[in-house]
Amino acid sequence: MKKVDLKQKVVSENETLAQANRARFADGGTLVLNLVSSPGSGKTSLIEETAERISGAYGMLVLTGDLVTENDARRVRRHGVEAIQICTGDACHLDARMVRDHLLGSKAKHYDLVVIENVGNLVCPATFDLGEDLKVLLVSVAEGDDKPLKYPPMVRASGVLVISKTDLVPYTDSDPDRLAGNALRINPNLAVFKLSSKTGEGLDQWIGWLESRLAAKRQSRARG
Amino acid sequence: MKKVDLKQKVVSENETLAQANRARFADGGTLVLNLVSSPGSGKTSLIEETAERISGAYGMLVLTGDLVTENDARRVRRHGVEAIQICTGDACHLDARMVRDHLLGSKAKHYDLVVIENVGNLVCPATFDLGEDLKVLLVSVAEGDDKPLKYPPMVRASGVLVISKTDLVPYTDSDPDRLAGNALRINPNLAVFKLSSKTGEGLDQWIGWLESRLAAKRQSRARG
Predict the structure, then answer these.
(1) Which of A180-184, A205-209, B99-103, B128-132 is least confident?
(2) Which residues from B are below 8 Å from A10, CB to CB?
(3) How far apart are CA B79 and CA B55, in angstroms?
(4) In Å, how far are B48, B160, B215 from B207, measured between CA atoms?
(5) What 8-state DSSP symbol labels residue A142?
(6) Alpha carbon of B60: minimum distance to chain A alpha carbons (Å)
(7) What string of DSSP letters covers A174-201?
(8) Taking CB atoms and an 8 Å cutoff, what residues of chain A touch B90?
(9) What number is the ipTM of this complex?
(10) What average pLDDT does the structure give for chain B?
(11) How far is it, in rounded angstroms, from Cα A142 to Cα A166?
(12) Of residues A189, A25, A205, the one with CA closest to residue A115
């Protein structure tokens, strides 16, 4: 009982901080995406391809979460985009405080887009709101089409499903439509993209969607 | 501070239960493996192939951990092996109490081999001893060769590394030797296997190693 209470307390404290983050992001008209997935589903690769295509026209910042190493931030910076690495130590997810401390405290600069790459973990990040507009869930075709059924809290918490590494479809038993169907059974409101950061297949649709979201934010900022 | 203390308390209570599990497994001369990995690295497939090759000669029981669904236990049972599904709800890892309650309380039957398939999660299960002889860490070649560097606690906690889905090597940027090297830099004592449950490549080495461990347990039981 006590354990459950404490978990609720941690989650509820996080929620308060997340709402404060969300308000500050909204004030700035910044679109914030929280990328979540298993380790190795291709979050960093998708961010790299997105940076190549978006960062000329939009101010973009990337926050990358890992237990240790600067590797992901270094990969992203090669594409001319600012990136901050958050090392969580033994924490299995980012939380709203980490995002606030690494981001909102640091500078007043405006960003159109902040992409947060969470720790690779299909369970715990579902519970911790960071103040993002949307969670973007990646599942690679190499992981098996049943994964949405086995990790439903994350599917429910997400607004977008990216089925990644579609270049591997011919070499696996995956049927991306079946994978998508399994996710949509749990959350019918998901926007679904199928893409390969390696071959570029499907990236235009993803970028098109992202640009429409960025344009909507810009409009709301102009009105505000 | 309080949060850290509570986590330590939970881990230390788990450790006490794990030692009790370990003592009971040792009394029975049972070899216990705790399979850990990201979601979709092929734990269930490896268990299925292992069951096909081992269960004629050795009494085998499988415990499969998932947030929800009986799917994995059902897959394993098709190979004529007993399987118990542990649904963890929102818990991101198995713990020693779940193993005790589902296994040790139930029957006095002897098993030579108990394989525990943990929740797909490369972070949290590293901290929770279940009373196993060894953690067997799976990393699929589709996840990227850098994964051991990014999740070092799990690499340190494991005794065996299985590099899985080697059939996908020609279609990815993976070099399994580099992946193994990254893991061995963190834990030089790892036994490393490279295999594909799909093509059967490398399974003989894995089964050979497992049989030698089972034979050693049998000998120690005969002496005891």
Answers:
(1) B99-103
(2) 3
(3) 9
(4) 12, 13, 12
(5) G
(6) 24
(7) --HHHHHHHHHHH-TT-EEEE--TTT-T
(8) 123, 127, 153
(9) 0.94
(10) 94
(11) 9
(12) A25
